[in-house]
Fold this sequence. Notes:
Largest sheet: 5 strands, mixed
Number of helices: 0
CATH class: Mainly Beta
Structural class: mainly beta
Distance between the termini: 16 Å
Number of strands: 12
Low-confidence stretches: none
CATH topology: UDP N-Acetylglucosamine Acyltransferase, domain 1
Strand order of the largest sheet: 3-6-9-11-12
Amino acid sequence: MNQGATIHAEQSVTIGSHVHVGDGVALCDTDFHEVDPGEGVHVAPVVIGDGVWLARSVTVLPGAVVGEGTVVAAGSVVRGEPAPWVVAAGAPARPVRDVRTRGRRR
């Protein structure tokens, strides 16, 4: 866990083993406030799988599940469930290639 990383857990944020979290990463299981009156605040658990690498300034939104071995590129926004063992990039983060070496990183 690097400097400036934040975890906002209204309900649940689960982080697996051997996870790398870069500077300025935000893990949020809540939107904090409603956008449209009467719609309520969106809250959903966040799950970060084993061996994940969240690079600098990644934002993980409510309900996201980051699969085992996934690498999320700097500045990306994760929503939904990117496939395991991929490099995901963008806003929203989408797979750009497979991770060549599966298994525990050293």
